[in-house]
């Protein structure tokens, strides 16, 4: 026993009396600010904490996520990449049926149906969805992720990311920009026009550039952008510029009309969020590596469909654990206010799931005021996230925390024990279909999702 | 109402080259929109998105406004409100958040695992309520920490699981329900300030360890470590898991010359296993496994001193008020379960069955809250049943004081036997609470076993003097106190 000799360090949880007594004897004492776990979880916690597989399973989950690499290898239509059929549409978040979808989700689905030419007028599509003639499935069920409404249809072009060690792939649409865009539920003619341009000009141009360039190391860009003030969810400015730097020359050499090249460069350069759609699948790709590790309590996905917030856990397969999505707390565009905002929506919380976004606030001082003010708050926020994570990302270093890695691997048991919920940075969609973005802010998942996930983990502990 | 009163006034301007980031501008917009008389406000860079928003809010787009221009659009009830809002815009744009003096320092850890991540593997002392102790203890083991679990009311399956995990990882679990340990020279839980020395203690008994530590202290002998393994460790269910591990730890420690294993009455087969294990060690092992025919704690300590070639001292004793033997019952009110066991074994040899809430034989059990029938009775106030939801009697003497007054004025009581335990974690001045009650009793003799070391914060001799002053007979040896108490009871036959 190490503590038999030398200066003992004591960690105390519980009565301060004993910490005081040890300190009075000149022991080094670290006091835990302990509080009881979420009510009613004691038995499930004990069962899961006692699972002999847990420590090894979580170590393996961490290893797989931390060692994953995401290379951008291609840009192709979703039809080709995901095998999507004409009447098959993917959406963000856990599974949902049309009747329960929120305004922005409906708006995006209506717009996508029109974009695919399934209906002439977006409004006509509602009846098809009601009758179940267009199938709806989560992006997550197809190795894909979609920001906000996250609607993907066959003709939309997607980024193809691959992990060279496992050959696993993940996909995401191309970012449309801000404001009135499909992912925020807008579907006016200008929105559809932009989607058509993206499918006919942007996608093919990027395909030529990527194929000309060869694989682009997205994980490396993520690591650099974290050191350049991006947290890869609400701020992707450095990432977008680094992508342009990589692909610009190949785009120029692709033999396209100069007007198209200029339009693509303008579009990408004029949209600070362009890289978000590469950050997200890179996170998805890494986290998918930990799926299905029996006994692991690591969260592998957090996603919202505008109605429900769902999480998935490494040790419980593809089951979703859900609760009602909350309305974010944040700042509003124009004269929009909280009454205009839809509850939380999008697969983009995959960035928080890997420890970027709200978990990496300390790395992104330029956006910390979303937290409510100061850089200190951002530091505290990131530090608080270490409490609920299993480890630290070896590649994503936060300069202001002395290059400590970002908090990695949300642990269901730690969330339940501390009642600290994952902090998510997010955009806000208008709750009426067709509105578009109304603001951006902070949100947390519903606590009950973690309680039910813990219960499911407890039920799977071998007796 | 005139038409003028409901007419809104608008102000739209584009300031060239006045950049501010979008978050700042959203904050400014929010602040200005909330100003008196303002019904709509947008302060934003003139990006296509924001010009769209401007249009949506019913404002005219200022001519030539581009992405590098700051657009200010205001709608208010009158010109004065517009002027006020513009001042507000200027103030808001000039303001810089105070920042920098916030909570930059590290936050206190919220779990044992987090504490270990920051401080390195250490000894984790867990005293959270019993139903939560397993979670924290397992977290500590996961973090590579040895664990001392002070908490009681931990289910025995959880104890076994923790001890098995610890064994797999080469770690030690002290407890649960481990009241006392001395590790690295630091007394933990209820502990005494004792000197370093050649003795290693393994104790499935907190107060048993305290008694031995204090007797060794009185003899001028110190310890390498005292490892409390929890009161159930030598039960049939737990099977001595931590006792065996602790023996190995002490055996590997070159400073440990003699080991003493202390326990309340153990399961016979477990005791045999532990004895067999001890025989294979390089370090000599003595046993104080309380039970009929076994040495009491004082006798075992004396044996240990002889093995160390140290003279056995006269154990300190402060005689109280002279009393003649009196007929009636022996009433013991204990804070330490092992001290209670030891006294029951000694009294049982004289008087036969002793009623108790922790009886030596199941059929001798009494409900500690039930009406007393006048039999010899020794109660343990530190038992789980009486501590659930309240502090241990070594910290909070109130329940015991109440019973002391009740038994002490009952004519059926011949002698009152009490333990008083000093040291870290215990009440800062127990004699101050007890002495006035004892002094009031008058009838029965009061005998106290005072478990304390010379350097304890309460001052052993001052405590003894105060108790003696109230009329009590005070012994540092619990066995001696119990024998004296029995001697004071006249024959009932």
From TrEMBL, chain A:
One family name in Pfam for this protein: AllG
Name assigned to this protein: DUF1116 domain-containing protein
Automatic annotation (TrEMBL), chain B:
Protein name: ATP-citrate synthase/succinyl-CoA ligase C-terminal domain-containing protein
Organism: Jatrophihabitans cynanchi
Cited InterPro entries: NAD(P)-bd_dom_sf, SUCC_ACL_C, Succinyl-CoA_synth-like
Record-annotated ATP-citrate synthase/succinyl-CoA ligase C-terminal domain positions: 333-485
């Amino acid at each position: 026993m190490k503590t038999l000799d030398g200066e003992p360090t004591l960690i105390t949880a519980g009565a301060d009396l004993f910490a005081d007594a040890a300190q009075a004897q000149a022991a080094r004492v670290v006091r835990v600010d302990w509080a009881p776990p979420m009510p009613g979880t004691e038995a499930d916690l004990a069962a899961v904490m006692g699972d002999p597989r847990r420590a090894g399973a979580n170590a393996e989950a961490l290893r797989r996520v931390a060692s994953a690499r995401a290379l951008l290898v291609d840009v192709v239509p979703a039809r080709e990449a995901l095998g999507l059929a004409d009447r098959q549409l993917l959406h963000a978040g856990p599974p949902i049926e049309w009747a329960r979808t929120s305004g922005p989700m409906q708006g995006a689905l209506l717009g996508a149906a029109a974009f695919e030419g399934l209906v002439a007028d977006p409004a006509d599509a509602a009846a098809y969805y009601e009758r179940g003639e267009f199938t709806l499935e989560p992006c997550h069920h197809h190795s894909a992720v979609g920001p906000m409404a996250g609607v993907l249809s066959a003709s939309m072009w997607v980024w193809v990311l691959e992990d060279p060690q496992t050959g696993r792939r993940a996909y995401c649409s191309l970012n449309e920009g801000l404001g009135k865009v499909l992912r925020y539920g807008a579907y006016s003619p200008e929105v559809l026009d932009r989607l058509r341009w993206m499918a006919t000009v942007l996608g093919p141009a990027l395909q030529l550039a990527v194929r000309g360039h060869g694989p682009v190391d997205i994980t490396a860009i993520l690591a650099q952008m974290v050191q350049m003030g991006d947290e890869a969810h609400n701020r992707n400015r450095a990432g977008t510029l680094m992508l342009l730097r990589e692909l610009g020359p190949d785009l120029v050499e692709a033999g396209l009309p100069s007007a198209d090249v200029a339009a693509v460069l303008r579009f990408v350069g004029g949209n600070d969020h362009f890289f978000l759609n590469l950050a997200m699948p890179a996170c998805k790709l890494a986290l998918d590596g930990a799926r299905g590790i029996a006994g692991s309590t690591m969260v592998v996905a957090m996603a919202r469909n505008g109605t429900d917030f769902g999480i998935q856990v490494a040790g419980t397969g593809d089951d979703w654990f859900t609760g009602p999505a909350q309305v974010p707390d944040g700042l509003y565009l124009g004269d929009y206010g909280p009454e205009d905002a839809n509850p939380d929506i999008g697969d983009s919380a995959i960035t928080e799931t890997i420890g970027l976004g709200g978990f990496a606030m300390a790395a992104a001082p330029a956006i910390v005021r979303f937290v409510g003010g100061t850089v200190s708050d951002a530091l505290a926020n990131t530090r608080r996230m270490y409490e609920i994570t299993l480890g630290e990302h070896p590649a994503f270093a936060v300069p202001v925390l002395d290059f400590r890695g970002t908090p990695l691997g949300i642990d269901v048991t730690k969330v339940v024990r501390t009642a600290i919920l994952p902090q998510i940075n997010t955009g806000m969609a208008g709750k009426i279909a067709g509105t578009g973005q109304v603001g951006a802010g902070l949100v947390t998942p519903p606590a009950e999702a973690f309680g039910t996930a813990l219960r499911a983990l407890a039920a799977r502990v071998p007796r | 109402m005139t038409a003028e009163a409901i007419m809104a006034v608008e102000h739209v301007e584009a300031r060239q080259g006045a950049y501010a980031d979008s978050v700042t501008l959203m904050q400014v917009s929010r602040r200005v929109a909330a100003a008196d008389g303002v019904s709509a406000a947008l302060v934003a860079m003139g990006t296509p998105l924001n010009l769209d928003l401007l249009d949506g809010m019913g404002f005219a787009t200022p001519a030539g406004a581009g992405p590098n221009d700051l657009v200010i659009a205001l709608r208010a009830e009158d010109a004065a409100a517009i002027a006020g809002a513009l001042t507000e815009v200027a103030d808001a744009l000039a303001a810089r958040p105070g920042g920098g003096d916030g909570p930059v320092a590290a936050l206190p850890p919220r779990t044992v695992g987090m504490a270990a991540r920051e401080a390195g593997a250490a000894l984790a002392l867990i005293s959270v309520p019993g139903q939560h102790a397993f979670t924290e203890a397992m977290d500590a083991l996961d973090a590579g920490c040895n664990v001392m679990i002070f908490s009681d009311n931990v289910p025995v399956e959880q104890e076994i699981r923790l001890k098995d995990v610890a064994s797999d990882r080469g770690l030690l679990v002290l407890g649960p329900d481990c009241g006392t340990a001395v590790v690295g020279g630091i007394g933990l839980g209820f502990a005494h300030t004792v000197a370093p020395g050649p003795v290693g203690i393994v104790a499935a008994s907190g107060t048993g360890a305290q008694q031995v530590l204090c007797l060794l202290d009185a003899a001028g002998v110190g310890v390498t470590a005292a490892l409390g393994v929890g009161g159930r460790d030598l039960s049939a269910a737990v099977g001595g898991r931590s006792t065996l591990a602790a023996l190995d730890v002490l055996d590997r420690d070159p400073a440990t010359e003699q080991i003493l294993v202390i326990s309340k009455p153990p399961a016979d087969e477990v005791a045999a296993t532990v004895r067999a294990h001890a025989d294979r060690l390089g370090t000599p092992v003595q046993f104080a496994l309380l039970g009929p025919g076994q040495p009491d704690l004082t006798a075992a300590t004396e044996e240990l001193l002889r093995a160390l070639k140290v003279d056995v001292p006269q154990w300190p004793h402060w005689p109280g008020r002279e009393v003649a033997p009196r007929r009636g019952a022996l009433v013991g009110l204990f804070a330490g379960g092992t001290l209670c066991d030891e006294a029951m074994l000694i009294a049982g040899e004289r008087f036969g069955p002793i009623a108790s809430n922790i009886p030596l034989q199941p059929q001798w059990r009494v409900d500690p809250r039930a009406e007393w029938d006048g039999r010899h009775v020794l109660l343990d106030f530190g038992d789980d049943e009486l501590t659930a939801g309240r502090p241990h009697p070594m910290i909070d003497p109130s329940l015991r004081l109440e019973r002391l007054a009740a038994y002490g004025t009952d004519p059926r009581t011949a002698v009152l036997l009490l333990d008083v335990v000093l040291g870290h974690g215990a009440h800062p001045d127990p004699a101050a609470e007890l002495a006035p009650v004892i002094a009031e009793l008058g009838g029965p003799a009061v005998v106290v076993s005072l478990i304390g070391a010379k350097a304890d914060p309460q001052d052993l001799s001052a405590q003894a003097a105060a108790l003696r002053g109230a009329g009590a007979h005070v012994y540092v040896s619990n066995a001696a106190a119990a024998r004296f108490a029995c001697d004071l009871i006249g024959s009932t036959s």
